[in-house]
Amino acid sequence: EAKRQGKGRYETFRPELAELARERLDLENDLRNALAQQELFLLYQPIYDISGVRTTGFEALMRWRHPVRGIVSPLEFIPIAENSGLILEIGAWALVEACHEACHWPDEQRISVNLSPAQFRRQALVDEVTRALAITGITPSRLELEITESILLDASQHNIDILHQLKQLGVRIVLDDFGTGYSSLHYLRSFPFDRLKIDQSFIREMCDSREALAIVRAVTGMGKSLEMEVTAEGVERPEQMALLQQEGCSHLQGFLLGRPGPAADIVCGPTNALESTSSRVPN
Ligand code: C2E
Ligand code: MG
Ligand code: MG
Ligand code: MG
């Protein structure tokens, strides 16, 4: 905040900032017990093939049922988990939990799990994935690990080595939120990703902005030439879906097709999402 105000200005005491800091500390303390108290859980959002008829897998999205605050968004608690180091324990739990759940699904359905940059800072990540595969018995190629460009930004060679080791295990590596980082294109050269997820911001604007559409088109074309699947995330409107089909995108994810819901709701096989969205609970 002080930085954004520019040089030559200094921070004055702002009671609302102290309040925010205290609230964050409270949340951090509560988060320490959340795992043991079984307050963390995963919802699963379907990923569809381009026709929007068949699911090819589900993305695990974490939620925190706080005893006083109710459901807390990952956008709020994941950064706290990252700064406090708690993400290591929480991330390891999510990996096993998601693989375990996916074992109940028909074979071809994949499970995607998000990884934080902090999980890359130690070698244990490879051991944890190995362990999750072993104790759940899931076929490695059904597990997709979603990473963001920030993983490639810091300590790049170390992290790319880890990505290669993960790939050796037979799991798939996905580049999430593609297009939002500083040098997205550069990273495509550094690692053979299995899938790119075009960031929702481009999908949101593609029907109204020539620039956003051009970027979606370029990423889709690039994915094809590089033999990477391309998933559009944040598909909310039929017009967006139609345009993505026309552009040759390979997979669709978004509220139009299905919201994140509890594992118990998952009905696999050919289900037309556009006709049965009512069975899913709201986000
Ligand atoms: P993400 O991995 O990019 O996940 C996609 C987010 O977009 C999810 O938000 C999902 O609910 C939301 N979304 C999907 N379709 C639509 C749509 O059509 N419209 C709109 N407006 N939103 C849509 P969510 O669940 O709140 O998660 C936010 C972020 O939190 C995730 O972004 C991911 O970065 C992080 N996150 C969630 N679960 C985990 C986890 O288990 N571990 C880690 N490290 N991060 C997680
Ligand atoms: Mg993701
Ligand atoms: Mg994303
Ligand atoms: Mg995102």
TrEMBL record:
Q: Which domain of life is it from?
A: Bacteria
Residues forming the EAL domain are: 24-274
- Any idea what this protein is called? GGDEF domain-containing protein
Organism of this sequence: Kushneria marisflavi
> What taxonomic lineage is listed for the species of origin?
Bacteria, Pseudomonadati, Pseudomonadota, Gammaproteobacteria, Oceanospirillales
